[in-house]
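Appendix B, Record 12. Input sequence as logged:
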Amino acid sequence: MCIRDRLEKELILDELTTLSEKLRKEALEGRQTTLELSEKINEFQARLKDVTRKMMSTIAELSMLQATGIKYKQEREELEKVLEEGRDRVTKDLPPTPTTEVEYLKMVRDRKRYNEERDLSLIHISEPTRLLSISYAVFC
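Logged structural output:
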């Protein structure tokens, strides 16, 4: 019986060895698969971070554009109000804005002064410079 027990134990040992080698092999393959999966996860995380950064910069840019749009809308509303007030004043035969008449009068005054000064700066001198011919000199 000793031989039989011994053969039985050897068979069990062989089976255990075969099973342990299979398990070891599967464990090594599992480690490789886990390593590959970890690398893929790291790649996906890096891409996700990159996309998140881009989205955040786009959101910041959109916020700036939205603020600019709101500012432009307020400016447009203010200018429409000024335009409406100007139209109302014109229908009442008044200048479009209170300062418009003052500016217009200044412009007329300045143009009048310019024309007067221009007329005064033209001095006509007629002197004979040669014996037989007369020359006219104009100085400004």
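Confidence is low (pLDDT under 50) at residues 124-128.
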